[in-house]
User: What shape does this take?
Amino acid sequence: MFHAKNGQLKLEETSVDYIRFGTGEKYLILIPGVGDGLRTVRGSALPFSFLYRMFAKEYTVFAFSRKNNLPETYTTEQMADDLSQCMDQLQIPKADLVGVSQGGMIALHLALRYPQKVGKLVLVVTLARQNPIIQQAVTHWIDLVSAQRYRELFLDIAKKSYSPPYLKRALPLYSLLARAMKPKDPQRFLTMARSCLTHDCYLQLQQIACPTLIIAGGRDQIVGAEASREIASQIVGSQLYIYEDLGHGLYEEAKDFSQRILSFLTSSIQGGSL
Assistant: This one.
């Protein structure tokens, strides 16, 4: 489906899982959030390509996980460096980026450290510096994983991510999954979660010159909507759209999410408001 393929790259002494789909001449890179610490994209090319099928005609799409063997300390800057190396290996000279949550943090660093490699930038439910909302949420998740309370972890992530109507429909399924699931590598999740708590590129944001769309949830309980407003205030010409009634999981709930991003990516608009 959509020419979907699973792949793996050698990176230093470890490897990186990735997926590829689409037939377009341009490149689009999707960067997932800290959930990648629970499960990489390995083996998910078919469902991923179906979920984001709207991009498959215009783009050849890639989604990269973090590398498989993480050092104990692994920053969002280092994650961006690794992504740059992956682009080099696959001979991707320049791509549009869509970064979700921690993926947005990585996308920011890639745009700052390797501006020649970034076409357009889409930042979804992310932040540029610390705030009390993310500190409280992620610290709680770290405590739950450290105590091996995995069921509570999955349920807390769901409750903080979704709107009440969506959660009401999905919670029975999440409760069932939470009983059976646990992180394959808890240390991987902890390392990635801790990197969220040290992320800070706020003072550099004015250096970003590429066309940028920022998408936020008005009820985001993980990074907060104000974090997106902060980013928009610092990136000249950036566009900001807020789903006022949705939270951190808006990328699953908003029916026009993919279309909104595709419209931005394929437009000639350089800035302004949506």
